[in-house]
Design brief:
CATH architecture: Alpha-Beta Barrel
Distance between the termini: 17 Å
Shape: globular
CATH superfamily: Luciferase-like domain
CATH class: Alpha Beta
Number of helices: 11
Number of domains: 1
Order of helices and strands: EHEHEEHEHHEEEHEHEEHHEHEH
Largest sheet: 9 strands, parallel
Helix content: 40-55%
Strand order of the largest sheet: 3-2-1-13-10-9-8-5-4
Number of strands: 13
Amino acid sequence: MRFGVMFDFRNPPEMRRADETVYRETLETVRFVEELGFDDVWLSEHHFTPDGYCPSPLAVSAAIAAQTSRVAIGQALMVLPLHDPLRVAEDGATVDVISGGRFLLGVGVGYRPKEFEGFGIDIRSRGSRMEEQLAIIDQAWRTGTVTFHSRHFDVDEIEIRPRPVQRPRPPIWIGGLSRPAIARAALLGDGLLAGGRRAVRWYVEELERLGRPTDDIQAAGAHRWYFVDPDPDRLRDRVEEHLLVFHNTVVGYFDSGGQAMPMGAEPATSAADLEAKGGQYVFCTPEECARQIVAHRREVPLSRFYILGGLPGLDFDIARGWIETFARVVVPAVRSELDATVDG
């Protein structure tokens, strides 16, 4: 089981700092994450938000590739229908070259109408559009040349350079929570970006339906966001204001798209309220965190698990505290317990 940290570079108006400070300190935290031994760094994407939620995950991936030497760099996730697939193929290959083969492409169809309107794309076309985009990117990375004629794209003998380091291509992970999205992930992707029980169960069922192997499931996600500290109550008090901004803003994103938020949550007025409304956020000791992750992993075959690398407007020293505790205490405990289960 691999462990990672997710970053979104949010800089909310009510806690605004200079954007260059947020990006510099986040990249410093990414280097810290690698030094601690984490396996993966994950980025996400949104557009046209007051908090500047990371709009350019491939540009940031290149920056991370240049400043690290070991961690895999992925997106959880990019809204692929908003992008030109040839550009994604070029930029993704460039990141793979800069990183020496550490890039993975994580994509989803998106759900916020404002983003599709801003880029002049019909949101109703996002499913078919992404399927065609994935075919173009796959062809570009495997062969270096694209010829593709379809409903949304018309490409004739376009050469794509550089070629990615990974062969036959960098892995493509597809996110989703609905049954159609998960079916698309099973059919077209190399892994699923979702960590919940139902999503992974559906993914396994879809793989079985397609006759694909299910003995080494590739699924990445977080069934909960863990905040780990020997004194969880103290950490909750320190981050409460920032967690509420994180949570309530994302609830607004999902509401704008007419969707229920993953893990089932509503707007909240306190961290205690958040914990009471479904357990999406958990403040706990390292020992309790390890127990919960092991229990989930025994039920759900996740191959990669990630935690948050910060909260909007929060001092990065506080975030580095729970990141370091997770790396030094939780990860070894989880791996030891899971290894003992395998040996037994």
